[in-house]
Predict the structure.
Amino acid sequence: MTTLVTGIGELTTCDEQWAASGAAPDEARLGTLRDAALVIDSSSGADGGSGIRPTGESAMSTIVWIGRREDAPAADHRIDLGGRAVIPGFVDSHTHLAFAGDRADEFAARMSGTAYDGGGIARTVAATRAATDDDLRALLAARMRELRAQGTTTVEIKSGYGLSIDDEVRLIRLAREVTPHVTYLGAHVVPPEFAADRAAYVDLVTGPMLAAVMALPEASWPAYVDVFCEPHSPHAFTADEARTILTAGRDAGLTPRVHGNQLGHGPGVQLACDVGAASVDHCTYLTDADVDALAATGTIATLLPGVEFSTRSPYPDGRRLLDAGVRVALASDCNPGTCASSSMPLMIALAVREMRLTPAEALYAATVTSGASIGVDARVRVGAAAQLAVLDAPSQLHLAYRPGVPIARALDLALAGGGLPR
């Protein structure tokens, strides 16, 4: 079955073949086409289920034609967007959605001056361990709906709120039911029961826990291994501990990722570059050597502005990174402690206002570069999966221009009119 999506006032493809002549470099990368249309085939399932499954659709859909509205071919069905903008669906490449419980009181305390050091994670671990599988499935399903309602079509989910063999295995198994982009984060923090013997916990994470994770059926395997490398937190891991954990995961076939340089200057960025990590996330405190290493290795720096917003911390200097040639991604870090928001439009607005990215750079970071960090090509092009977001606005500029206004949502072909308000 094919569907013609027409009446697109502005189509952002992030494919430079559609770049206007004379466009500035950051605008040219967006590959903008005006008065556009595209045709989607819902019978092919191009990406094998890489994205968040649209409501009512049994398989993912494929883009089979892109062009000017007046040149559009016939199709079985037709959706007219009435001049709305279409962009690649957001790729949220850093989330902690597999959890139970609530820590709103910690947010209130931080707004009154209490510093964040990672200690509250233990509260979420306790609540998550106490939750049933069905409880966690229901929470994950609700969060998937929340993501799509804000334009996110692809998401990575970490474990890390189990911190025991059985609970980490369970979180990975449940996360894999909703996304293939899952990260083993047994090394989120050292749990209280191991506080007096950190070495024993590192041995557990790199030995029996990792073995149990990789003993899951292949369809439930994670793709990544991650560690919170942060010497400024007594609960997180040192450089040596983190290297041991990442090396063990890499030897098991998992690609490294790193939480690094969040609370102060530290070894996380250099470690990520050394071990060939797909990305190093946070990057709030960077030396010139850190920036040079990121640029030289091509390691993606994933910035998480919702964390700075929610912890009243300094924002990373995104402009400095981009000007140095670093690949910059944006993600939400949605979690119960330091960023309870799953809104990628909010992350774009914060990156523009606080990190000195242009609106074009922020959109590219939240789609293409974020996708690259989890092996997803987010560009809108023929043959690609139809992972699209529609804006109730004429241009992608409104993502930063109208912060807090719910203008973005994923395009759902199974719903009347694409699920858009009339």
About this structure: The first strand starts at residue 2 and ends at 12.
